[in-house]
Amino acid sequence: MTLQLLLLLAAALFSVGLFGALTQQSVVMLMMGLELMLGGLIVAAAAVWHFVSPTAADGQVLVVVAVTVMAVEMAVGFAVVTALFRTREVDMTDMAAELRE
User: Fold this and answer.
1) What contacts 80, CB < 8 A, 6 or more positions away?
2) Distance CA 54, CA 65 (A)
3) Distances (CA, A) of 49 to 72, 75, 85
4) Which of 2-11, 58-67, 88-97 has the lowest mean pLDDT?
5) Who is most buried in 4, 25, 30, 86, counting CB within 10 A?
6) Angle, to 10 degrees, between the axis of helix 27-52 and the axis of helix 58-88?
7) What distance in Å separates the CA atoms of residue 22 and residue 40, rounded to the nearest whole number?
């Protein structure tokens, strides 16, 4: 694969995630859009790192750490959304914005 093709894939993932994050009102769909955006950034970073320094393992380690952080972030995010839904039945971003009180 070429660098341009991988960067095009990363841009497509990021664009779909941005569209999903900006147009959805469901908290779960918003989080899915953010995850797609982060996935696009990771693909771009891994592609650039592979083509800049293919023999070094630093880029691979960074990608594994980023994917691990994404998984932990999603687990915590879903736990918070589940707790909000169970206590106050909040599942939309408009309803979550009113929780300041």
Assistant:
1) none
2) 18
3) 24, 28, 41
4) 88-97
5) 30
6) 180
7) 16
From residue 3, how far is each of 8, 40, 76, 97, 99 by CA, in Å?
8, 14, 33, 41, 45
Distance CA 47, CA 89 (A): 42
Structure tokens that stand for 85 in this block: 């839904």
Q: Are the C-beta atoms of 91 and 27 separated by less than 8 Å?
A: yes
Whether the CB-CB separation of 11 and 80 falls below 8 Å is answered with no
CA count, 13 A, side-chain hemisphere, 92: 6
Q: Any residues with CB less than 8 A from the CB of 57 and at least 6 apart, and which?
A: none
Render pLDDT for 2-42 as a digit per residue (tens, 0 to 9): 999 999 999 999 999 999 999 988 888 888 999 999 999 99
